[in-house]
Amino acid sequence: MSFVKFLGTAGARFVVARQLRFSAGTWLELSGTQLLLDPGPGTLLRCRKVRPPLEPLELSGIILSHKHLDHSTDVNIMIEAMADGGLKRRGVLLAPQDALEGDDPVVLRYVRPFLERIEIMAEGEIYEVGSVKIRPVRHNHGQVETYGIILEAPEGRLGFIVDTRFFPELPEKYEGCQLLVINTVLREWNPDIDHLSLPEALEIVKAVRPNLAVLTHFGMTMLRGKPWELAAQASEKLGIKILAANDGMTVDAKDWA
Asked: Which residues lie closer than 8 Å to 235 by C-beta, 6 or more apart?
């Protein structure tokens, strides 16, 4: 079975710090290749607590979109778990350069030998992990090097628009995605915050017109607005299937085919 599972749907520091939603990452299985995107706080625990449990030893790779803590806190323990406590050298890590180098790398050096290989992401490059091709998309997220992700697999083209400020070229970068997942922190646009708002997310959905769009990574204003209701209203207005993710939600490949 091919699927995308949202282990956590928290975005913004207050929702994460108070754990109003879980802040774990997103687990994908595509044609037998299992990947983990952005292992934030509590990812390993959530892998063990969901039903059925998810097995880190079955992961082929971990993708780190950027080094902010709500996306990277569990990256080291998930690398170690993927490598059977460091006893096996296995798996791939894809990460931005500043997550690995510089003054504040978030990937500890002692876990790096547990990996089969490390790929430093760059826009325009294509990385292969198992049956999946991975294309990074450079985002605009303050001073932190950040990449959205396009995955190409037999099940289709999947886009993950992670944290970013809106810019005019953003929708066209995700053209052709059948599943489009968008981190939607804000209910209303705020020029001082480098995150997408709901109106901006819907502008992207309208331009891309995926078979299924999923909103996730909610801040406080989105939670107060009841994201499931906001998504249902937008879906009816645009004539495009739009869902608001909840913790533990699984989307099967048939839902975006």
From this structure: 241, 242, 243
Rounded-to-integer distance, Cα 16 and Cα 21, Å: 7
Return d(Cα 127, Cα 30) in angstroms, integer: 15
State pTM to two decimals.
Answer: 0.97
Domain count, the chain: 1
CA distances 231 to 149, 198, 216, 234, Å, are 22, 9, 10, 5
Residue 12 has pLDDT above 90, yes or no: no
Instruction: Compute, in degrees rounded to 10, the torsion defined by CA atoms 171, 173, 177, 183.
Output: -60
Beta bridge partners of 136: 149
Kindly report the CA angle at 134 between 132 and 140, in degrees rounded to 5? 155
Q: Whole-angstrom Cα distance, residue 20 to residue 122?
A: 33
CATH number for the domain spanning 53: value is 3.60.15.10
Residue 210 banded pLDDT, cuts 50, 70, 90: very high
Q: Find the domain containing 121 and state its range.
A: 3-255
| AA letter at 255 | D
First to last CA, the chain: 13
Residues 6 or more apart whose Cβ sits within 8 Å of residue 109: none
Average pLDDT along the chain: 97
**Do residues 200 and 209 lie in contact, with contact meaning Cβ atoms separated by under 8 Å?**
no
3-state helix, strand, coil in the chain (%, to 5): 25, 25, 45
Torsion of CA 201, 159, 62, 34, to 10 degrees: 130
In the structure encoding, which two tokens stand for residue 103, read together?
């003054």
Distance from C-alpha of 169 to C-alpha of 183, rounded to nearest angstrom: 17
Q: Which of left, alpha, beta for 102 (phi over 0: left; psi -120 to 50: alpha)?
A: left
